[in-house]
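Bench notes, afternoon.
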Amino acid sequence: QVQLVESGGGLVQAGGSLRLSCAASGRIFRLYDMAWFRQAPGKEREFIARITVSDSITYYTDSVKGRFTISTNNAKNLVYLQMNSLKPEDTAVYYCAGRIAGQEYNYWGQGTQVTVSS
């Protein structure tokens, strides 16, 4: 099993920045990649970004390209999401997720709230 715990959410004004962290523990050697998702009230959960564990290849959804950066600190089993130029529409609960190669994301954190005020 893999356990994921997010932190770093909060309230920020539009144009501001936040950095989310995801601490991974357990059988993390099984993971192929890690990702961030978000879910706004009344909306479906949305993929934001992912990064492969072995070689740090990244992929972003169009709405966050150039503003958000996903990275890892493998020595500390941490995944980060640096969020800059935040907009009110970025308000959501942000989730960290992990998956084994060839599978869907089946390891999830509890989520952390990000609120961007206008």
